[in-house]
Design brief:
With 434 residues, the chain is of the alpha+beta class. It is elongated. It has 16 helices and 17 strands. Bound molecules: histidyl-adenosine monophosphate. Histidyl-adenosine monophosphate (HAM) binds at residues 78-80, 108, 110, 116-117, 120, 122, 124, 126, 270, 289-293, 312-316, 318-319. This is Histidine--tRNA ligase.
Length: 434
């Protein structure tokens, strides 16, 4: 029997769990500041929830099986279909806009590599019920604010942003027929990662003439001002440019303008997106996407629910963890005890006095540990040092006036207390030794 978990799955030993907790705490702290409320759904869903609505890539990566009741089911590979199903089921009753977040563990059977595992935790932040572009700006600003909270700046990370409606308008303006758009999307999605000739070949296969193909291949280098200057008068494009300009202005006002980069190659692999889409990347280009999302206005309706506009993003714990670690911004470890309680085993009231002391300190919300057996005092203190205790409480009720001695780790001076004074002092120091 191997001691290793399955490929692409992780054990979280306490120090790694502390890193995960830091990431989760930061996510929760920021999204709550934006008035999002937490929800969750089942980790196992009917298979058809994904086969119809997610992108092909995710569907080929499903962990699926037939359960004992003959139902085809799948472990959730993403949260959006569950979210859409849950909101759809109560669409009438919910206050709009719905602003919800979740921290699900997701499962995708993909080739494991740097930044890609077979399970990951993913912060999902979604808004339903508002079509205004102010909502798109609100959404991306949450993702960016999270980067700030982790200690990153716009020189570390950028949000690459596009709009599927704008892209469709451009393709229409270039006289490319709608059935060909998915092929163009697929090429744009891979433009950075595959050789230019391969992209050109794929466009030719899709029946796109050489000149037009060149224009599409040139989309990589276009900034927003250039697109405005070049296509601003095209009726199929103009309304989408105007909306996008408004979006950028709102992002500026929300204080995240410096992080934004217009980028027509961001199309997102998932099938349901309909509007503004974005992904966050590190500026060095060292890691995969930190986060991705966008507007998916038709998903709720197509899952048989009410016709409501929606948008959201997912941010995994793996890539952000790698990025923070590489920048020295994830220096957390498991929490050591604040107090280590010790008592000489020869004392007449040992170990009861030590146990009463630990109990009193825990009631004062302190993190307390002690040796779980009778031991020489030296051994107990040595165990406390190994545990990384912040302070030692040495119990000696035979000393009449102040039978509780406190010594901070790494210090020689001691303070003497009664038990009442000790717990009062510990409470006033918010559970940690000063
Ligand atoms: P996604 O682009 O598939 O979107 O995933 C979002 C993020 O989750 C990625 O940018 C990446 O950080 C992380 N991620 C995805 N797959 C893996 C993996 N195998 N290992 C580690 N991390 C991974 C979605 O899932 C959409 N449902 C997001 C969304 C929410 N859109 C609207 N609302």
């Amino acid at each position: 029997m191997s001691h290793k978990p399955l490929p692409g799955f992780r054990d979280f030993y306490p120090d790694q769990f502390a890193e995960r907790a830091h990431i989760f705490d930061t996510w929760r702290r920021i999204v709550r500041r934006y008035a999002f409320q937490e929800y969750d759904g089942p980790p196992l869903e009917p298979l058809e929830l994904y086969t119809q609505k997610s992108g092909d890539e995710i569907v080929t990566q499903l962990y699926n099986f037939v359960d004992k009741g003959e139902r085809p089911v799948a472990m959730r590979p993403e949260m959006t279909p569950t979210f859409a199903r849950m909101v759809g089921a109560r669409a009438q009753a919910l206050r709009k806009p719905v602003r919800w977040f979740s921290l699900p563990q997701l499962f995708r059977y993909e080739r494991t590599q740097k930044g890609r595992l077979r399970e990951h935790f993913q912060l999902n932040v979604d808004i339903v019920g508002e079509a205004d572009v102010m909502t798109d700006a609100e959404l991306v600003s949450v993702a960016i604010e999270i980067m700030r909270a982790f200690g990153l700046t716009h020189t570390d990370v950028r949000a690459r942003v596009s709009d599927r409606r704008l892209l469709n308008g451009l393709l229409e303006h270039l006289a490319i027929a709608e059935p060909t758009w998915p092929a163009v999307y697929a090429v744009l999605d891979k433009l950075e990662r595959q050789p230019r000739e391969v992209s050109a070949e794929k466009l030719a296969e899709a029946g796109i003439a050489g000149d037009t193909a060149e224009v599409i291949l040139g989309f990589t280098s276009l900034d927003f001002a250039t697109v405005q200057a070049r296509y601003g008068d095209a009726p199929a494009v103009k309304p989408h440019l105007d909306r996008f300009a408004q979006y950028l202005a709102h992002c500026d006002a929300l204080g995240v303008g410096a992080w934004m980069r217009f980028d027509l190659t961001i199309v997102r692999g998932l099938a349901y997106y309909t509007g503004i889409v974005f992904e966050l990347f590190d500026n060095v280009g060292e890691f995969r996407a930190i986060c991705g999302g966008g507007r998916y206005d038709n998903l709720l309706k197509s899952l048989g629910g009410t016709d409501l506009p929606a948008l959201g993003f997912g941010m995994g714990d793996v890539v952000i963890g790698e990025l923070l670690r590489s920048r020295g911004l994830l220096q957390v470890s498991a929490t050591p005890p604040a107090y280590w309680v010790a008592q000489s085993p020869d004392a007449p009231d040992a170990p009861a006095a030590a146990l009463r002391t630990a109990s009193a300190l825990r009631s004062a919300e302190c993190i307390v540990e002690y040796a779980l057996k009778s031991q020489k005092l030296d051994k107990q203190l040595e165990a406390g040092r190994k545990a990384g205790a912040g302070a030692f409480v040495i119990v000696d009720p035979s000393s009449a006036d102040a039978p509780w001695r406190i010594r901070r780790a790494g210090h020689d001076d001691q303070t003497f207390f009664t038990l009442e004074a000790l717990t009062a002092w510990a409470s006033s120091h918010s559970g940690t030794p000063a």
